[in-house]
Amino acid sequence: MGKKTYVVYAGREPGIYDSWGEASSNVVGHKGAVHQSFKDGGQAETAFTRYVENQSASTSFTSGGNKSSWASSGSKK
Prior knowledge:
The chain is of the alpha+beta class. The chain has a single domain, classed as Ribonuclease HI, Chain A, CATH 3.40.970.10. It has 3 helices and 3 strands. Strands 2-1-3 form a 3-stranded antiparallel β-sheet. It is flat, with a radius of gyration of 12 Å. The two termini are about 20 Å apart.
């Protein structure tokens, strides 16, 4: 069985993580955290990229509203 990859969409530091230990520290105790596990890194990267693109397209860029800034630097892989 392959090693899982984890995506944190909303949490302390959104991104892609290679272990639950890394991902969980960004979601456990964080209200509104959203995360998902994937069987391989390619699926995780595709899902996170699509999420970021969707957030960027639907976000208005007003005082601190640029959500793409956290996502572009959030990948931990």
